[in-house]
Write a structure and sequence with these properties.
- The protein is α/β, with parallel strands linked by helices and about 300 residues long.
- The chain has two domains: about 40 residues, no CATH class; about 200 residues, P-loop containing nucleotide triphosphate hydrolases (Rossmann fold), CATH 3.40.50.
- It has 15 helices and seven strands.
- The strands form two sheets. Strands 2-3-1-4-5 form a five-stranded parallel sheet, sandwiched between helices.
- The longest helix is centred in the N-terminal third of the chain and has 22 residues.
């Protein structure tokens, strides 16, 4: 051929068709066509890999009960408090407690994700709120979770809470220490190179959560690449701790306008967050918390 590009335009199809005809004529092989999705599932079945779930939501009723807001963490930034505070506004609804406490963790947990979209929808089926939300702090630094959320709920609002990464890492260490008895000191992780943890998977995981998760830019840029910038809402931990009422008012107003441009916040009765927070009511436990700032400090 004097023109190499002509091979792709004219000759390649001819050559392939001749090959297929030869195979059908001189062999007992039965050639069939499969769509790409079935080919991938067949490959995974042959090599004992979990089947890819059908994540596309075709049922219109199911689309309506998918979360519009996902609080993605990261861990130890006050995401639990925000998840609880939003319950005060009746226009916001969320899932009940699960085996992962308040977190669904559907997109970051392969066992849950491979059960398909019906599993995810089941967490929110009994909700009638205008704006459904969920919180899973394991999503923030999970690259698979970012792509999976984009695939299933491309128009959702992502909430990221930022805290001083040093304080967040130290807080996460103490969080693990409360649950794991035989854990090395914080200095041990601070002075080690992560390559030393290859043989100790548990220590390597803790190290990554303490230090690598705190490299916020690395993960935020991935969220921005998958979602438009106006779909990502940032909250600062210090503001949430010191002035939760203002943070809640700003965020709920933004969220309502984001999902309904006709929503007139001035004509709606404002939610009295002060009544709940200043009166020391804890919506999570029906208990008394004398100061939400102190409570967040103790928890984080």
């Amino acid at each position: 051929m004097t023109h190499y590009q002509n091979y792709y335009e004219n000759v390649s199809e001819y050559v392939l068709m001749k090959i297929f005809k030869e195979i059908q004529q001189f062999t007992n092989l039965n050639l069939i066509n499969l769509n790409p999705f079935n080919i991938v599932n067949t490959y995974k079945l042959l090599y004992n890999i979990p089947k890819i779930p059908k994540v596309l939501i075709s049922n219109q009723a199911n689309k309506k009960i998918l979360p519009k807001i996902i609080i993605v963490g990261p861990q130890k930034t006050g995401s639990w408090a925000l998840w609880n505070f939003l319950k005060i506004d009746k226009k916001f609804g969320t899932n009940n407690y699960t085996q992962h406490y308040e977190e669904v963790q559907f997109f970051s947990n392969n066992k849950l994700y491979f059960q398909g979209n019906e599993k995810y929808v089941s967490y929110f089926k009994n909700l009638s709120s205008d704006i459904i939300y969920e919180k899973s702090s394991t999503y923030f630094d999970n690259l698979d979770a970012i792509k999976r959320i984009k695939s299933m709920i491309p128009n959702c609002l992502i909430v990221i809470i930022l805290r001083n990464p040093i304080n967040r890492g130290y807080s996460y260490y103490h969080h693990i220490k409360r649950h794991v008895k035989s854990i090395p000191s914080f200095d041990y992780f601070l002075n080690q190179d992560h390559t030393n943890f290859i043989k100790n998977i548990a220590h390597k995981k803790i190290y990554n959560k303490i230090f690598k998760t705190g490299c916020y830019y690395k993960y935020i840029i991935k969220w921005i690449e998958n979602f438009s910038f106006n779909q990502i809402y940032f909250i600062f931990y210090n503001q949430l701790k010191n002035n939760p009422i203002q943070v809640l008012q700003n965020f709920t107003k933004y969220a309502k306008n984001h999902f309904n441009n006709k929503y007139n916040t001035s004509s709606q009765k404002q939610v009295n967050y002060r009544k709940y927070l200043r009166n020391r009511y804890n919506p999570a436990t029906n208990g008394i918390v004398h100061n939400w700032g102190d409570f967040l400090s103790r928890r984080n």
